[in-house]
Design brief:
By secondary structure, the protein is α/β, with parallel strands linked by helices. It is built from 14 helices and 13 strands. Bound molecules: 4'-deoxy-4'-aminopyridoxal-5'-phosphate.
Length: 351
């Protein structure tokens, strides 16, 4: 091949992208920026995982149907294995959905603000991404969403970063009247307790997305699952790579699902911490606290620059937004009690 600039070998559409970057976290920092579960697994549980991994046949591919894993997810969510797809994080499932139903000439819709990966992966697949700003109270307007006649509509339930669950009626209107897929992303389901999963056979265009990264405390291994009717699941599977879950991940997930009651004990703890945090935050002047159904809280802060500086000084990592209209908002993940106290103390001192 003649000498050519390497970048020219990549499609122009992709060249225009900025890579998805997350800044490095230093030792000792308090990480309240990514909705992770702050409670690590016990030593005994880690030993148990180690045992199952030692017995693995590393030279063999994993079971391509992930039968045992799906049976365990089925027992957890009360749906059949044939309604389940597993993914390398729910991000991988979002990509599979877009490969299957969006792309060039297709439209993807989502409210704004919402989880950024819907936009990133829509653009990566060449889909036209359209957003509908949420109302002032962060509610969803089904009419405006439906006007976009999207091939795929994403709705995070509860929504990230606003933390609220949209009205069930508005969502139902979208599912009923949309001519495309409607993906309800229930990444924070264990915290909200609200779900559309039982309706997948009622609506052929409904997809429910879940993750193991939040309540199950498995952000590090990358695993999620998707729930939909059998026919759709059969089609969507074609848009995934074979063996998308490593045998290691499969074993870890099976151990964790066998102990789900213990692991999910942290959900109540975190909801309790969130409520305490909300009460304390409401007492600090210059902060508006938005009600949350998830493991994070959205705050509107008058003197946001001072607050961010103080948090940085105290090595507390939170998420600030650069989007228009959101630059004096901050999203904080509910951490362990000690971490939350330090966050609150920093805010109290500066405001
Ligand atoms: N959906 C929503 C609404 C999220 O907030 C996140 C993570 N922040 C994800 C999906 C991604 O989850 P996963 O780690 O399974 O890719």
């Amino acid at each position: 091949m003649k000498k050519k600039k390497a970048r020219e070998l990549v499609k122009e559409r992709i060249r225009k992208f900025s890579p998805y970057e997350v800044s490095h976290i230093d030792e000792g920092e308090i990480k309240l920026d990514a909705q992770e579960n702050p409670y690590a697994f016990s030593r005994e549980l880690k030993e148990e995982i180690k045992g199952t991994i030692t017995d693995l046949s590393f030279n063999r591919y994993p079971d391509p149907s992930y039968r045992e894993l799906k049976n365990m997810i089925s027992a957890y969510c009360g749906l059949k294995s044939s309604n389940i797809l597993v993914g390398n994080g729910s991000d991988e499932l979002i990509l599979a959905l877009l490969i299957a139903s969006a792309g060039e000439g297709k439209t993807v819709a989502a409210p704004s603000p919402t989880f950024s990966m819907y936009r990133i992966l829509s653009e990566l697949t060449g889909s036209a991404y359209r957003e509908v700003p949420l109302e002032k109270d962060f509610s969803l307007n089904s009419g405006k969403m439906l006007d976009l006649k999207a091939d795929v509509t994403f709705i995070a339930y509860p929504n990230n970063p606003t933390g609220n669950c949209f009205s069930e009626e508005e969502i139902e209107k979208i599912i009923v009247a949309s001519g495309g897929l409607v993906v309800l992303d229930e990444a924070y389901y264990e915290f909200s307790g609200k779900s559309f999963a039982s309706r997948i056979d009622e609506y052929c265009n409904l997809v429910v997305l879940r993750t193991f990264s939040k309540a199950f405390a498995l952000a590090g291994i990358r695993a999620g699952y998707l729930l939909c009717n059998e026919d759709l699941a059969h089609q969507l599977r074609k848009a995934q790579l074979p063996y998308n879950i490593s045998a290691l991940n499969e074993e870890i997930l099976k151990v964790i699902l066998s102990k789900k009651r213990d692991i999910l004990g942290t959900v109540e703890l975190l909801i309790d911490s969130r409520e305490k945090m909300e009460e304390k935050l409401k007492k600090i002047q210059g902060i508006k606290v938005y009600p949350s159904d998830a493991n994070f809280i959205l705050l509107k802060i008058d003197r946001i620059d001072d607050v961010i500086k103080a948090l940085e000084k105290n090595k507390i990592r939170v998420r600030r937004f650069s989007e228009r209209g959101l630059n004096n908002y901050l999203r904080v993940t509910v951490g362990a009690e000690k971490e939350n106290r330090k966050f609150l103390r920093t805010l109290e001192e500066i405001l």
